[in-house]
Amino acid sequence: MFSFDFDLEDDPLEPTKGVAAALPAPQSDPVVELSLSHLLDSLPSRISYSPVSIPLSSGKIAALSRRDLFDARFQLISEGTDDTDGAPGLDFLDAPSDLVPGVYEGGLKTWECSLDLVGYLDSLPDSSETRLPGKRILEVGCGTGIPSVFLLSRLFCEQSNVDCHVHLQDYNSSVLELITFPNIVLAWYMSPSSAEYRASEDDVEYPPPDPAVAGELSITPALKNAFTASISKLGIGLAFFSGSWDSLTLRLRTEGTKYDVVLTSETIYRTDSLPALIQLLYQACIDEAALCLVAAKVLYFGVGGGVSEFARTLQSNALECCGRAETVWERKVGVGREIMRIHWV
């Protein structure tokens, strides 16, 4: 187990201080697709949430609602859920920065580089490459899913005749159930797409649709139905996958599934998992024109992972695929962070 030693949930960001030991690669768990109906059934009767404030290059602040960890912890306690399937339980909710390869990969925590990725996505000029309608988007190692939630918050504000698919992968199914999917529901509620539903529910007291304000949202059958109907009307297809990168790569290859936009953040900390990650990114990209972005710290102290090692592995002849990492954004103050665009060769 190791920790990156900073906490976005309660305190200002702190630089990484170190890790306990080098980590073995996790086992290759089979990929499992979690249905929308299953995730809706996994929601509690109420969700407590707080805002995540993300500074943008324009000088504005993007606010997104994120489910509180203590609320997810309360759900596990009230449901009597334990770690029997290897999913993160109370221990990891109490210490979301502690990673155990093959058991829990840190998805309960919002990591710094996911916020960097939001800022970069927001800064991209409007073009056929960056317009969301008609795109197929995959976030690998999504955790709290903040980059995808940001993109979905935009889609929830648009009316388009062109479908868009947003797929999310995390090693742990419980992360998708407890945090990722609730965050997406919150993004929908905070958007104009939920206005008709909010106006029709006079007998339920709902919080104002302001992602900059903390609150509690009642999850009623009517809300679930409205959410499902709304994303269908908007042409938004959601899919959620748990399991290892190797298993998802095999599934995508078998099904011939490709994506226009592939995102990942804080996933290159372990050197021996880099080949599996790179193979997945390559397999997922529709072609060399796909927008493939990797956000990461320059160095993950104690485990050897980081930008340089990722770039070396990406160019290695030992892989079936080969690519080049272009730095498109960087922060040099404190613990360095970068966003790389991957070009496949």
UniProtKB/TrEMBL annotation:
**Biological process according to GO:** methylation
UniProt cross-references to InterPro entries, sorted A to Z: Methyltransf_16 (IPR019410), SAM-dependent_MTases_sf (IPR029063)
* Source taxonomy: Eukaryota, Fungi, Dikarya, Basidiomycota, Agaricomycotina
Q: Where in the cell is it found?
A: Cytoplasm; Nucleus
Q: Which Pfam families would you find in this protein's record?
A: Methyltransf_23 (PF13489)
Q: What is this protein called?
A: protein-histidine N-methyltransferase
Family matches, as Gene3D superfamilies: Vaccinia Virus protein VP39
What is the residue range of the signal peptide feature? none
Query: What Enzyme Commission number(s) apply to this enzyme?
Result: 2.1.1.85
Main subcellular localisation: cytoplasm
